[in-house]
Amino acid sequence: MEILNIILIIFLIVCAVAVERTKDLLSAIIIFASYSLVMAILWLILMAPDIALTEAAIGAGVTTILLVATVSRIRRLEK
Amino acid sequence: MDDLIVKTIIRIVTPFIYLYGVYIILNASVSPGGSFAGGAIMGSALVLYTIAFGLEKAEKKVPNRIFKWQREVLLCFLFMGFVTIFMGYDVLKLREAGAYALEMGQVVKVDLLNLVNIGIAMKVAVTLISLFHVFIKEDY
After folding, report:
1. Pick from A68, A71, A79, B34: most CB atoms within 10 A?
2. Which domain holds residue A15?
3. What are the sequence ranges of the domains in chain B?
4. Structural domain includes residue A14
5. Residue A78 lies inside a defined structural domain of this protein
6. In this complex, which of A53, A58, A66 lies closest to B32 when CB atoms are compared?
7. Residues linked to residue A24 through DSSP beta bridges, in sequence order
8. How far is CA B4 from the centre of its chain?
9. Do residue A65 and residue B41 have CB atoms under 8 angstroms apart?
10. CB neighbour burial string for B109-124, b if at least 16 within 10 angstroms, e if fewer
11. Is residue A48 part of a domain?
């Protein structure tokens, strides 16, 4: 269980850095969705299933869709 | 999005998402989840439908007037308060009336809290759907 925790947290940090480094906004949104999914698994490991459900519904679902809708209205590449 | 596979899969999957949302809302007081998560799941089901079938069909599914529901949630709270008073309990002591069932696996006698949960879930779902529709509309 310790090793799984460490792997998930390392993946989380890598995702958070990659969101900031990516120039393509759509790729950044997809990486952010995977960040949210890993965060939901971490909440479940920390024995908070309420927060895990909400994170999976809001963070991975609705926030991603709203950000994609925003990117479809503006240009895709960051200057 | 004109894709036959996506449309067929979403047509099959959407009732199960609605069923899961209703299950979470109705068991909100005794199981993990809660009314906010259940409402978000029910709202995201219709967002999925909007992505697959377009805005016109989704607006036919959800008429425009439910976006103006502001008082219904408050009415749910008021109704719960009045039911508690007419049962002979104090409003501030809802636990005695059976409104709070916070322990896992406990049999709920009078599930008054479900009324408030349905109200909160309705508000959350309507807010999510209206946010997405406003985002996607071309000119308004």
Report:
1. B34
2. 2-71
3. 4-136
4. yes
5. no
6. A53
7. A77
8. 29
9. no
10. eebbbbebbbbbbbbb
11. yes
